[in-house]
Every structure is written in structure tokens, then in C-alpha cells.
Write a structure and sequence with these properties.
Blueprint lengths: L2 E4 L12 E4 L11 H19 L22 H5 L4 H4 L5 E5 L6 H14 L6 E5 L9 E3 L2 H9 L6 E6 L5 E8 L8 E9 L2 E3 L6 H7 L7 H7 L13 E3 L11 E4 L6 H12 L6 E8 L2 H5 L4 E6 L16 H24 L7 H15 L7
Antiparallel strand pairs: 1-2, 3-6, 4-5, 4-6, 7-8, 7-12, 8-11, 9-10, 12-13
Helix pairs in contact: 1-10, 4-5
Length: 374
């Protein structure tokens, strides 16, 4: 497959390697429904369950996280597992429950007071504490934007206010460590590119989106998100960011970054996870200064730690074959079962599938009411 590099515009994706593109703007399976991609995983799950004599064995792989982070986990509770030393690598945050005050304005004031008291400042990233796939993530540059965000946020739900990282480059790093071992392993790196269009001084934003080979295919995502700017004419060579959240389902561009896995980065994460008890399987979402520093295991800030339902998201690189994607998914669930098996030998008891179902129902109930994503 022929590929070529395209330059990154100034101010967007700084620190990332050049974006490699091919004739495959999107893979034919890139936006398949989850059931289509996960049918082989479900079949393998049943086979592994028979082998290990437990349907819910993966739910104890990360014993410090409820249900191992398969569903319904609290982002803040997982981040709070980090020791003082490890937490220095995490973008700092506070949490707040919507509805503690009588109005959205009063809620915003109380939430910001709590945030400022921690020595943090705007801009910040607001997101639900319970959720997945970038649901409800919003960049807040001004206090009034938080008021608008909270007006659309469901009463009683918990939100997380996190300082915006000083870095632009973003990656998802899948890390595993078998119980009892001092070293772990990185099994996947995904480079997450913010999509953009470049102005020509004549075309409107809508015209630029529709004319772009990839953005035009995902126009249903971008047009709704930027409805108030669609008739704006961008100046010649002006770059416009189409998405903020580093989520594939929200429009970000994912590339396989496994070539950037190094011993130095692995050792750096080993040190970090030494301070996160009970975490053995999952994906870190992080920002970093530049690719060379990331490979050296320095100058990165962790946004989230995802658990058992994590994906090795490099499979959503449009150059990935369906066979490779299935092979990757099946392998990661084999590892998950193996870690669960070892945790059971240590005395951890798998929960019931009813607990999993209830957690999934609760998450589903909240997610449908979250605000739109930037």
C-alpha cells in the first residue's frame, strides 16, 4: 500500500510525527457497528470461559477497579489510585456533582471554586466521570462556557474538571503487567491526530469539510459540531481544528504507532504503575511534548487510565487489515483472561454477570444525556 506524509499545520498536532496517509482514506470496516467487530471476541470469550471455568474471569484482572474497568468505572477513582509520585505524571483535576447547587450558574461557580482552590486555571477540559468513547468531552476556555455545559449536563451526574495539558500531541498506550512481575509490556501505541481543514480565502468551512476526502465522509460529525461556523470563510492557509477530543468515534484520526515502542518508554511506565496498585491491563490516554521525548519516556501527561474494556486502538488506522484487527482484539482478550486467571489464583473472586449488567445499564442511562463533544 502506497503512503505519503503530509505536513502538520502550525498550532495543531504539534509534536506528532508527520501524518502518513494512503489511498485508503478510511478502512472498509473502520466504522462498523460494535457487534460486527466483536462477534469473534464474544465467541472466543465463551471458549476461554469454558477453558478457565468462569464467564466473568476478566472482571478481576484489575482488582483495584470495580469490574476491572469493563464498564461503569469512575475516571477519577482510577486516577486517584496513583501514589503521590505517580500522580505527578497526571493532568490534575477535581470532580463535582451536577445539582449540588440550585442552578447551573451556581453549580459552575462552586465547581470552579473547587478547581481554582487546587491552584489550577483555565482553560480546562470538562467531561463526565463515568463514560466512554469521548462522550461529553468539552474544552472550556471561559467560565461562561462551563455554565452552558452544565445546563446540558444531567442532574446528579458526576463530572471531572481537568487542567488542559501543556502538550498537543496525543497517544493511547496499551500496557499490561502480569501479577507478580516487576516489568510490564506495551502492546500497542496509537497516535491520535486532530483532524483539520485549511482555508483558501474563498470557501466556507462547510465547503472545506465537504471537499476534504476524509472529513467529507464524516461530515455528519463535523457539521453538527460546528453548525454556528459553517458559513465562515477561512483566511488563506488558516488551519481550523475539526475535533478536540482524541476519540476515533468523535472524528479523530488514528495511526499505528507501534514502531515507537521503546524500552525507555516501557521502563518509564513500569515506574509509573509501581505507584498504581492493582492495575494490570488497560490503555493510558496521554499528551506528550514530541515523539522523541515520548520514546525516551519523558515529558508526557496522563489524561485517563482505562481498564478491561480498553481497545488497542491502533486497529482503527485506515491501513490496518481486517485480519490484523481481529488478531489484535483476540490476543488482547486472551491476555485479559490469563491475567484474570492469575488473579483468581491469588484469591480474588470473579463477580457475577448480573453486576456487570447493572453497571452497563447505569452507564447507558447517563451517557444518553451527556452534552455534545468538542
Amino acid at each position: 500500500m502506497k503512503t505519503h506524509s503530509i505536513p502538520l499545520p502550525k498550532g495543531i498536532n504539534e509534536g506528532m510525527p508527520p501524518l502518513e496517509v494512503s489511498d485508503n482514506i478510511t478502512s472498509f470496516f473502520e466504522f462498523w457497528p460494535a457487534w460486527a467487530m466483536y462477534t469473534p471476541v464474544i465467541i472466543q470469550w465463551l471458549l476461554l470461559s469454558a477453558r478457565y471455568r468462569s464467564l466473568s474471569l476478566p472482571l478481576i484482572a484489575n482488582p483495584s477497579i470495580p469490574l476491572s474497568g469493563m464498564v461503569g468505572e469512575s475516571k477519577s477513582d482510577i486516577l486517584d489510585l496513583a501514589s503521590d509520585a505517580s500522580s505527578k505524571s497526571i493532568c490534575q483535576f477535581t470532580t463535582y456533582h451536577r445539582g449540588e447547587a440550585e442552578t447551573a450558574e451556581a453549580d459552575a461557580n462552586q465547581a470552579l471554586d473547587k478547581y481554582y482552590q487546587k491552584g489550577l486555571s483555565l482553560p480546562l477540559v470538562a467531561k463526565p466521570d463515568l463514560g466512554c468513547r469521548g462522550a461529553g468531552v468539552r474544552l472550556i476556555n471561559q467560565e461562561v462556557q462551563l455554565v452552558d455545559y452544565l445546563k446540558a449536563f444531567p442532574l446528579g451526574a458526576k463530572l471531572l474538571l481537568q487542567e488542559r495539558s501543556q502538550y498537543q500531541a496525543e497517544a493511547g498506550i496499551f500496557y499490561i503487567r502480569y501479577p507478580g512481575q516487576k516489568q510490564g509490556k506495551i502492546i500497542s501505541i496509537t497516535l491520535k491526530y486532530t483532524p483539520w481543514v485549511i482555508g483558501d480565502g474563498v470557501s466556507t468551512l462547510k465547503q472545506l469539510i465537504m471537499a476534504d476526502k476524509r472529513a467529507g465522509k464524516l461530515s455528519h460529525i463535523y457539521l453538527d459540531r460546528h453548525a454556528d461556523k459553517l458559513e465562515t470563510v477561512l483566511a488563506k492557509d488558516e488551519a481550523f481544528r475539526l475535533a478536540f477530543a482524541g476519540s476515533h468515534s468523535r472524528g479523530s484520526i488514528f495511526r499505528n504507532g507501534n514502531e515507537y515502542i521503546t524500552d525507555a518508554l516501557t521502563q518509564s511506565l513500569d515506574t509509573f504503575f509501581d505507584g498504581v496498585p492493582g492495575y494490570h491491563f488497560g490503555r493510558l490516554d496521554l499528551k506528550f511534548k514530541n515523539i522523541d521525548d515520548l520514546m525516551a519516556g519523558k515529558n508526557y501527561q496522563i489524561l485517563e487510565m482505562n481498564g478491561a474494556s480498553s481497545e488497542a486502538t491502533h486497529i482503527w488506522d485506515s491501513r490496518t487489515s481486517l485480519a490484523e484487527a481481529f488478531k489484535t482484539l483476540l490476543k488482547q482478550y486472551q491476555i485479559l483472561f490469563k491475567i484474570g486467571y492469575l488473579q483468581r489464583k491469588e484469591g480474588h473472586k470473579p463477580p457475577s454477570l448480573l453486576q456487570l449488567y447493572k453497571a452497563w445499564q447505569e452507564e447507558k442511562r447517563w451517557v444518553k444525556d451527556y452534552p455534545s463533544t468538542d
